[in-house]
Specification:
- By secondary structure, the chain is of the alpha+beta class.
- It folds into two domains: 15-143, Sandwich (Jelly Rolls), CATH 2.60.120; 146-215, Winged helix-like DNA-binding domain superfamily/Winged helix DNA-binding domain (Arc Repressor Mutant, subunit A, Orthogonal Bundle), CATH 1.10.10.
- 45% of the residues lie in helices and 24% in strands.
- The strands form two sheets. Strands 1, 2, 3, 4 and 5 form a five-stranded antiparallel β-sheet that branches.
- The longest helix is centred in the middle third of the chain and has 27 residues, at 118-144.
- Keywords: DNA-binding, Transcription, Transcription regulation.
């Protein structure tokens, strides 16, 4: 690996891990929209994101998508960890949401550091545990929370000022539902005076009403 980035952006690592990654890690870059890995592919290494954002998602048999998680700077890919540990294949797809750069830890280097660097091993296990908790929350939301409440929360979370720039399909993918469901719910929200819809974006007119919807009693 070149010394373009150095290793200060991963302060948890010990000297042994830093030196091994400088020597044998690989800097990789992805354009916005480029696939990072695909369903059924073998893992080529553990990506640790340096900059950008990578979306990991699954596609159902019916053709609907759901976002499992995002990899942000200094974060690892949980599915890659699992594939490296059990030498399995990917069960999801990852796509760069914007121009992204990552440090790719090859399988042999991953195995060596897991056994020889306590700091690296702890960083991997902490990342894996934290992501597992977030995925459990996702399962809980999909199973027990109404889609309208989840959509209201997503709109409030994604708003910049009072604007959300996303298509109906992008919102559907985030929530793991059909585009038609999102279109219908947004129509209901607009009729209630909570939002104003425009092509490719919407304005939140009543964030308090949306907040009341997702903060209220949750029913399946």
């Amino acid at each position: 690996m070149s010394s373009t980035w150095g290793m200060d952006w991963l302060p948890e690592l010990d000297k042994r891990a830093r030196q091994r990654l400088i020597t044998d890690g690989m800097e990789v870059a992805f354009a916005a929209g480029q696939r990072v890995f695909g369903l059924g592919e073998r893992c080529s290494g553990l990506p640790i994101l340096h900059s950008g954002s990578i979306r990991v998602q699954m596609l159902s048999a019916a053709g609907s998508e759901i976002v499992l998680y995002r990899i942000l700077p200094a974060q690892m890919c949980t599915l890659s960890i699992g594939c490296l540990l059990d030498e399995g294949l990917y069960h999801a797809t990852a796509v760069a949401e914007r121009p992204s750069e990552a440090l790719l830890v090859p399988p042999a280097v991953f195995d060596d550091l897991m056994s020889g660097s306590p700091a690296f091993r702890d960083m991997v296990l902490r990342s894996y545990g934290a992501r597992l908790q977030s995925l459990m929350l996702l399962v809980e939301e999909l199973a027990f929370r109404r889609v309208d409440a989840r959509l209201a929360e997503l709109l409030v979370d994604r708003a910049e000022a009072d604007t959300v720039r996303a298509t109906h399909q992008q919102l559907a993918t985030e929530l793991g539902t059909a585009r038609e469901v999102i279109t219908r719910l947004l129509g209901d929200f607009e009729h209630a005076g909570w939002i104003e819809r425009h092509r490719g974006w919407l304005r939140i007119a009543d964030p308090q009403a949306l907040a009341r919807l997702y903060a209220g009693p949750e029913t399946a």
